[in-house]
Design goal:
heterotrimer; A alpha+beta; B alpha+beta; C alpha/beta; A: alpha+beta; two-stranded antiparallel sheet; 35% helix; B: alpha+beta; Arc Repressor Mutant, subunit A; 3 domains; eight-stranded mixed β-sheet; three-stranded antiparallel β-sheet; 16 helices; 40% helix; 19% strand
């Protein structure tokens, strides 16, 4: 799979990560070699193989609809970068 | 060149569970910001989801109510995107294997016809938090109380061809989910949200045109307006030779227009994949059967019951039974005044008029079912004439007083004493000699129409308090005596 | 005191040879004096430790103590610890004081073990050398400029340097077993689902597991007894009954069938390592075990499958680090997008960013089938290999790593070089099976690890096989030179 710098920029945007222009080539090289590594997979025939999402053959357990959490706003917001009037502040979002 | 609109609706119904879909925090509406957002809802590092069994049951209830396929194995997938109201940076939803598959329901149109609308699927997902944009300069405030509330996203087939059909479908879904008790249907509070996918094409064409999705429409009236507006907008663009951009638009109720949603301008690659923190949901036939057999009364069944139990017409029954809150209100009124027809007339007539004029849903009616029931009881027992009753209703609407005290305060009690009425009737007859002579001179089969004048005069003389039925019963023989 | 095992310390505490306070104080002093050489701790918690030691002493005198009461433990900085910085080795969480305890921490608190502090690790558990930490590289006590392995490098170095008698680690692709092998320690990655992941900062959700790193198998059994068990807060937690891992340590190994995958003993394997492993296998034969050659044909595919699945899940798990609710936020963000991009660009190190990019790409539009889905299919083939092999044999053995501890900086130029370190360990996480590494000799005075792999929930058998080997040999008793 041949990637180029613009692909790296697109992926970095999807992942919301700032990549400096000077580092783009290095990331491109690394990612390309990783993808070359994983291309080995394509040689194997997996036509009728069911993907394995979880190692255990288990099913989802259900939780009773009971309130178990109380208001812990002060504690939980003590780690927040910016809070005012109980709200998390972020740069204005324009819809 | 005839145009045809193709409409599909995506409805997000907030499920009425006590707690979030993946955490034990409360979902109660109206709490102080972030007081119902626990560590899991805030996506603190290391936190994990555990699935609410009530949400599953509610989803399956919906599926069985619309005779849909139920996914015996369904899977939660992650929909990855960045937005401040989505704390994990992904929304847990269901793409590949939803809990409910293909189903259908019938809608009744204004001309009395029935149309079947397909439901493509319904799946479970978690709601996002809320952003407040007005409070802070240059900043938005995020409240994550709503984050994690369970949603059932109900996707229709693009089977609707007009705003009327779309509204009927939306109302039917509303009726079903509220009748099932799985959603409170409160559009103003955001527990029932309708997104409209609209496209147009030449009539007879097979290919679908590009569609737009309109969001932020929080009443049935606005749904109708938004869709109508969007159809017109698209037709105008196409007739001018332009193209329709596939996009998401926000409805503005004040301006009655939609505009492009800036934050959704770029197409998002959501990178769906099965959520590794959750295991597949597997349910057995027994589970589904038990739910199906224990469903509460559904709208169609309720309509039939109203026809047989209350002897209502198809039209009246449909309109009274469609909305669960309305149906409950109606039945309470009937239980009180013991007159199904009278109750139906008032609820679909005067009472509905007052609600519409004040832009209120029945849940927010200032007049309770008991008060209305009491009012109708007073009509039944002849204490009130129609005119007087209307005045009482208006008074109830603004003052919250008791029916009987309003009647007394305004002196609205009908005169039903035959003797008193007879005095008034004879007085009017003796004062209206000219009209009496015209009555005597007229052909017997034409006399009925002339009663109106006398009735008017008598009602005026009695200040509207004479019981019209009794007046007529006395007036006709008195006039006939003179013929 | 510092060379004593947990079992011996437990004895000493019970008999009153020393108190928990003395023991803890000694370790804290030693950490203070020595850790600058190794950089194995990110945060030491002396006040908390002494508080816990005092409470432990009370229980010990009251006779209500457990085997692990009063035992000082170091915790990998991936476990959320309430009121204590929990960094996951990253600048992103340098300022994060966790508001809650991980279940693993709660379990140790419940038996009143003592928490010495949080150990260094590769950032977000991504690495095999502990060179990817925001807090600097960790030095292997066995070689002045050698890596201790990763990502649980700090946990391993702390125990190897006798700065803790035991520590907790996590293993996603070998991160307990490989550092244990490089530092002459015993480490076990339990069956997936055996230990709760609640509060364990997620790297790759379907692969991560927590486990102990200790000097002996007996110690590991004692710690696993505390750590293992069902947790309702973790949907992937197993309900299987928890064994007493110390109860069967001494069972004779006669008849134990050991499978030797030919793929683990290929011509590429360093001959010195091969020799140490062969010697260990001979010892097992002396103990009564039978050796059998088996094949795990898809072994080579473990690397590509892992390097799609792990980064893909990680790319999604790490999306919550967005500067909104906790952790690092860039200064003076211009707008939302700027805040996200600079926060994440600054907060994450290079390897983490690399893996997020790979994972994002693997899940992106058009590539899901070729990468993620394909990797999950390969994963099933790998699991099948093991399941089939374990029908013929009881346990599988081989080298833990292809080479002993390499030099700091030796493999940082090419990430693929580093990924190859985990060639023998990755497949186990994909299959979810339990695996251990125990010391089996040295090459050039650097430790070599023997890997022991078992069937689902066969931790008892693994620990038994390890313990019996450690009764008959003394590799595990050797301490790093110069200690």
């Amino acid at each position: 799979m041949a990637l180029d710098k613009s692909d790296v920029d697109k992926i970095a945007h999807l992942a919301r990560i700032n990549i400096e222009e000077k580092d783009t080539q290095a990331y491109l090289d690394n990612i390309t070699s990783i993808l070359d590594l994983v291309d080995q997979m394509q040689a194997v025939d997996t036509a009728n193989v069911e993907p394995l999402a979880h190692p255990m053959d288990a099913i989802q357990r259900l939780r009773a609809d009971d309130i178990t959490e109380s208001n812990q706003r002060e504690l939980l917001q003590s780690v927040a970068p910016a809070v005012e009037e109980g709200l998390f502040l972020v740069p204005k979002v324009i819809d | 060149m005839q145009w045809e609109a193709v409409i599909g609706l995506e409805i997000h119904a907030q499920l009425a569970t006590k707690t979030k879909i993946f955490s034990g925090a409360s979902t109660a509406f109206g709490a102080e910001p972030n007081t119902q957002a626990c560590a899991i809802d805030l996506a603190l590092p290391g936190t994990l989801p555990v699935f609410n069994k009530e949400a599953l049951e509610m989803a399956v209830m919906f599926g069985t109510a619309i005779n849909a396929e139920i996914g015996k194995t369904s899977v939660f997938d992650r929909k990855n995107y960045f937005y401040p109201d989505s704390p994990k940076g992904y929304q847990t939803s269901q793409l590949f294997y939803p809990i409910v598959g293909l189903g259908q329901l019938d809608i009744a149109l204004d001309d009395g016809s029935i149309k079947t609308i397909g439901v493509t699927r319904a799946h479970l997902e978690e709601d996002a938090g809320k952003s407040l944009h007005e409070k802070f300069a240059n900043m938005s405030g995020i409240d994550l109380n709503r984050a994690g509330t369970p949603l059932l996203e109900i996707v229709s087939e693009p089977d609707m061809r007009s705003a009327e059909e779309a509204v009927a479908y939306a109302k039917k879904i509303h009726s079903i989910v509220t009748s099932l008790g799985i959603c409170d249907g409160n559009m103003a509070e955001g527990s029932f949200r309708v997104d409209c996918n609209v496209s147009v094409r030449h009539k007879g064409a097979e290919k679908l045109g590009n569609r737009t999705e309109s969001k932020n429409i929080n009443s049935f009236r606005f749904i109708e307006k938004a869709i109508k507006g969007e159809i017109i907008r698209q037709i105008e663009i196409l007739e001018d030779g332009g193209k329709i951009d596939q996009e998401t638009r926000l409805y503005d109720a004040e301006k009655d227009t939609t505009r492009t949603m800036r934050s959704k301008e770029e197409a998002n690659d959501y990178r769906y994949f099965p959520c590794p923190d959750l295991l597949p949901i597997v349910i057995e036939d027994d589970y589904i059967t038990a739910i199906r057999n224990n469903l509460p009364e559904l709208p169609d069944a309720r309509k039939q019951r109203f026809i047989t139990q209350y002897k209502l017409s198809e039209y009246d029954a449909l309109n009274l039974s469609a909305d669960k809150a309305q149906a409950n209100f109606y039945e309470a009124v009937v239980a009180q005044c013991k007159d199904a027809k009278l109750a139906a007339n008032w609820m679909l007539g005067e009472f509905a008029k007052m609600l519409n004029q004040n832009d209120l849903s029945i849940e927010h009616s200032p007049v309770s079912e008991h008060k209305l029931g009491q009012l109708l009881t007073r009509i039944k027992d002849n204490t009130l004439a129609t005119n007087g009753a209307k005045q009482v209703l208006e008074a109830l609407w603004s003052e919250e007083d008791e029916v009987d005290s309003i009647i007394a305060a305004k002196g609205l009690k009908q005169v039903t004493d035959t003797g008193a009425i007879e005095v008034i009737v004879r007085e009017v007859v003796s004062n209206c000699d000219k009209q009496v002579q015209q009555y005597i001179a007229a052909e017997p089969d034409k006399r009925g129409k002339m009663l109106g004048f006398f009735m008017g005069q008598i009602m005026k003389a009695s200040k509207g308090k004479a019981n019209p039925g009794q007046v007529q019963a006395l007036l006709v023989p008195i006039l006939d005596e003179l013929c | 005191m510092f060379s004593k095992t947990i079992a011996q310390l437990s004895q000493g505490l019970q008999t009153g040879e020393f108190s928990a306070c003395e023991l803890t104080r000694n370790y804290l002093d030693r950490i203070s004096a020595q850790d600058s050489k190794f950089n194995s701790y990110i945060t030491v918690t002396p006040e908390l430790a002494m508080q816990q030691a005092k409470a432990a002493d009370k229980s010990i005198s009251a006779g209500t103590a457990n085997a692990m009461t009063g035992i000082p433990i170091a915790h990998k900085d991936i476990f959320c610890s309430k009121g204590v910085r929990t960094s996951a080795g990253s600048k992103m969480l340098d300022n994060f004081i966790s508001p809650y305890d991980a279940t693993v921490i709660e379990k140790f608190n419940a038996v009143q073990s003592v928490s010495l502090g949080k150990t260094n690790m590769d950032e977000f558990a991504m690495g095999s050398s502990n060179e990817n930490s925001y807090y600097g590289a960790v030095t292997n006590p066995w070689g002045e400029n050698r890596v201790p392995g990763g990502s649980s490098g700090g946990s391993a170095a702390a125990v190897a340097a006798q700065l803790a008698p035991g520590s907790t680690g996590t293993d996603t692709g070998g991160s307990i077993r490989q550092p244990a092998a490089l530092t002459n320690l015993t480490g076990i990655k339990p069956t997936y689902g055996r230990v709760s992941r609640f509060g364990m900062i997620a790297f790759a959700s379907s692969l991560d597991q927590a486990g102990p790193i200790t000097k002996t198998a007996e110690d590991a059994a004692m710690m696993l007894n505390v750590m293992a068990g069902f947790d309702p807060k973790d949907s992937t937690s197993s309900n299987t009954a928890v064994d007493d891992y110390t109860a069967t340590l001494n069972q004779p190994l006669k008849g134990l069938k050991i499978g030797l995958p030919k793929e683990f003993f290929s011509a590429d394997l360093n001959p010195d390592i091969a020799n140490r492993v062969q010697d260990a296998l001979k010892e097992y034969q002396t103990l009564g075990a039978e050796l059998k050659e088996i094949s795990l044909p898809n072994t080579a595919l473990a690397i590509p499958a892992y390097y799609i699945i792990a980064p893909a899940e990680a790319s999604s798990n790490l999306s919550r680090f967005d500067g909104v609710k906790f952790g690092h936020r860039c200064e003076n963000p211009v707008d939302l997008e700027d805040m996200y991009k600079r926060t994440r660009g600054e907060g994450f190190g290079t390897e983490v960013k690399r893996r997020i990019l790979v994972g994002t790409y693997a899940l992106s539009e058009g590539f899901y089938d070729a990468y993620y889905k394909k990797a999950q299919q390969i994963r099933r083939l790998i699991q099948q290999d093991f399941v089939n092999a374990l029908k013929e044999v009881d346990v599988i053995m081989g080298p833990t790593t292809p080479q002993p501890a390499f030099k700091i900086g030796e493999k940082t130029a090419d990430p693929i070089d580093m990924y190859m370190e985990d060639i023998y360990t990755l497949s186990l996480n994909l299959a979810g099976l339990p695996g251990m590494s125990i010391p089996c000799g040295q090459v050039d005075n650097l430790p070599v690890g023997l890997q022991i792999i078992g069937n689902y929930f066969a931790e008892q058998r693994l620990l038994n096989a390890a313990h019996m080997f450690q009764q008959a040999t003394d590799w595990h008793t050797q301490t790093a030179p110069g200690l």
